[in-house]
Amino acid sequence: MQLTYTPQQQAFRAEVRAWLAHNMPREPLASYDTREGFEQHRAWEARLFESRWSMVMWPAELGGRGCDLIEWLIFEEEYYGAGAPMRVNQNGQLLLGPTLMEFGTPEQKRRFLPRMAASLDMWAQGWSEPNAGSDMAAITSKALLDGDHYVINGQKTWSTRATFADWLFGLFRSEPGSARHHGLSFLMVPLNAPGVTIRPIKALNGKDAFAEVFFDDVRVPVANRIGAEGQGWHVAMATAGFERGLLLRSPARFQHTARKLVQLFKASPHSAARDPGLGDAVIDCWMGAEAYALSAYHTVGRLGRGEQIGAESSINKIIWSELDLKMHETAMRLLGARGELLAGARQAEDAAGWLEGFLFAQSGPIYAGTNEIQRNIIAERMLGLPK
Questions:
Q1: Residue at 294 is within a domain
Q2: What is the pLDDT of residue 223?
Q3: Residue 126 CA to chain centroid, in angstroms?
Q4: Nearest Cα to 116, choosing from 40, 58, 51?
């Protein structure tokens, strides 16, 4: 496949590059898994929104630029290529946002999407429960109708950045006596509502990356439901498709990591001499990142012709999660003992950031549905194999 860009797309790339060159933060932002870093990233998101760069694919009336998927890929390439800050409101902008575009009412879109694009509202995801992780159909948290409100009771866990978020979206069992994927509703819950309790969960790096959220008679208006009563599973599967597909993890993110890995290899001649297989591993990682990018352009072309990817999003999820893990494992091999240094260590130098990335990469094959589940989906829905 040969990629060529139109003059309009080339001009768009130049505009993105110029804006980033003039507006990038002068100093790296603190981790968004800390209160300080979370607010720094929120301020950066507001700056993006002011120039309509936060959600380039959204319609102009909702704060975007009305770009197509090719322009989004171009934006992502320039954004990661410039080393811009990680996007802190991904749960809202990249998962809930497209869900609202597809299933939300006009009023819901007007109410939530512009604030989401500006990161005035920060979102957490509320799917996993203590006994419903990858098996999301086992959800037991209840949302029972009481007039024009739902009354929610139950618990969600492993909610990314819920410690600092303003809202949570998730699935709740709204039909008493229902089982599995029946009788679920998709609700948006303000985390400052009476009856909500948030307890942080520390990640491997010691930061408050996750939280468990408890609901005790929390009242949520019916107007906060996305889709029809009891049809939450259908809505959530669309959201899961966004999570496993292109939107949550764009190819540019992994191309950026692959370029950094190549630079690290060139700066580590002693490690390369000690382990001759490292060169092949670095090349394999670089080729994997480029192959994923080309695959993304191919997928975008198919979507542009009106096709759908459906269960193929599970292949995407396996590719990017295992590629990320492989790249960081290769970096650890190159760094040796220096790879154990935290980014703030005085001697970290070119090792800075690799440990944090390595720790986060461990979760890739787990979140967004474990890769074991994704392989089952591929086997059953794409290959037609028996359960």
A1: yes
A2: 96
A3: 14
A4: 58
Q: Are residues 364 and 273 in the same domain?
A: yes
What is the value of pTM for the model shown?
0.84
- CA neighbor of 128 nearest in space, from 153, 101, 156, 167: 156
DSSP single-letter state for residue 197: E
Out of 76, 243, 312, 356, the active site residue is 243
* Element of type H or E holding 264: helix 251-266
Query: Is there a domain that residue 111 lies in?
Result: no
What is the distance between the alpha carbons of residues 325 and 52, in angstroms, rounded to a whole number?
33
Domain holding 16, by residue range, is: 7-88
What DSSP designation does 55 have? T
pLDDT digits (tens, 9 = 90+) for 222-242: 999 999 999 999 898 877 665
What is the CATH number for 209? 2.40.110.10
Q: Do 257 and 336 fall into the same domain?
A: yes
Higher pLDDT among residues 245 and 103, named by residue: 103
Q: Is residue 243 annotated as part of the catalytic site, yes or no?
A: yes
**End of a domain among 230, 253, 275?**
230
Clarify whether residues 327 and 252 are in a common domain: yes
pLDDT tens-digit series, residues 184-197? 999 999 999 999 99
What's the N-to-C CA distance of the chain in angstroms? 36
Q: Which amino acid is at 76?
A: E
